[in-house]
Amino acid sequence: MKIGISGGTGLIGSKLTKELLDRDHEVYIFTRNKSPNRISDSNLLNYISTNSIQAKDLENLDVIFNLAGENIAGVRWTKSAKEEFYKSRVEYTKHLVDAINACKNPPSIFINASAIGYYGAYPDSNSTFKETDQPGEDYLGQLCADWESATKGILNLKTQVRIARIGIVLDTKGGALAKLIPIFKAFLGGPIGSGKQGMSWIHSQDLVNAFIFMMEPKRKNSIFNLTAPEPKSNFEFAKSLGKALNRPSFFPTPNLALDAIFGEGSIVVTQGQFVSPTNLIEEGFHFQFPDLDIALKKLLQ
């Protein structure tokens, strides 16, 4: 298959690219970098340097992934930052949709990233969200809802749209886990805030496999929560990570400290949601790492 990836040079995009190449797919990475570092020496890997994807770039692709989006965690949510969050997600997706609509031979499948922030962020919740639930009314919920709504502009009936609501990705090379490891190794790790907030995590390899699962034409669902089957509270997650690193996990980080550093953006870690991958399970997806302790052991061995 011929597969395009926008956002293919990031942590997730790079891992997806390597997996696709290993499976002998031809991959086209769209990047603004005129001299990107090659992820692989494979002759199946192609880079298209562009600031604005055009219809001609998408002609005859089987699948196009849109994984682009400015990092939202670990930064202050200033007015300018929020504008960039929206532009890099909603406006970018609208432009990509326009390019697909202008194709004579458009991609058969368009997989657009979203996030479990769609369901809202909560300091403590007994609810477990599935794909049919409504978006939250907070900033993250509305941003993700607008992001997903941008894909509804697809007019070409030849293109199937699929939404990937991504959870907390566990990988030692980036993301939340990479930031937490040195803190725990320094004997300073522990729950954040109340510790009761949901952490709906997924091992990076399961995430990549889920993306490939979503590529298959026979999928009957169009929205998938990409999370492990058993979400954990922040307290439980900290306990498991401390165990995996043979470190204590009882030093809580107070909300006030995080608010002082990140302002409104601190809710990414002080609040959360419990999410179920209902549609993945219904369609028979096999998780390699459904258990958090095993997933952390594999990543940290």
Largest sheet: 7 strands, parallel
Helix content: 25-40%
Mean of pLDDT: 92
Terminal residue distance: 34 Å
Going by CATH, the homologous superfamily would be NAD(P)-binding Rossmann-like Domain
Query: Spans with pLDDT under 50 lasting ≥5 residues?
Result: none
How would you characterize the overall build of this protein?
The protein has eleven helices and 13 strands. With 301 residues, it is of the alpha/beta class. It has a seven-stranded parallel beta sheet, with helices on both faces. A two-stranded parallel sheet has the order 6-13. Helix 1 links the parallel strand 1 and strand 2. Helix 3 (79-101) packs parallel to helix 4. The protein starts with a strand and ends with a helix.
Characteristic terms for this protein:
Rossmann fold, two-stranded parallel ribbon, 301 residues, seven-stranded parallel sheet, alpha/beta, 37% helix
Indicate the topology:
Layout: E1 2-6, H1 11-22, E2 26-31, E3 45-49, H2 55-58, E4 63-66, H3 79-101, E5 109-115, E6 128-129, H4 139-149, E7 160-166, E8 168-170, H5 175-185, E9 198-199, E10 201-203, H6 204-215, E11 223-226, E12 232-233, H7 234-245, H8 255-262, H9 267-270, E13 274-275, H10 278-282, H11 292-300
Parallel strand pairs: 1-2, 1-4, 2-3, 4-5, 5-7, 6-13, 7-11, 8-10
Antiparallel strand pairs: 9-12
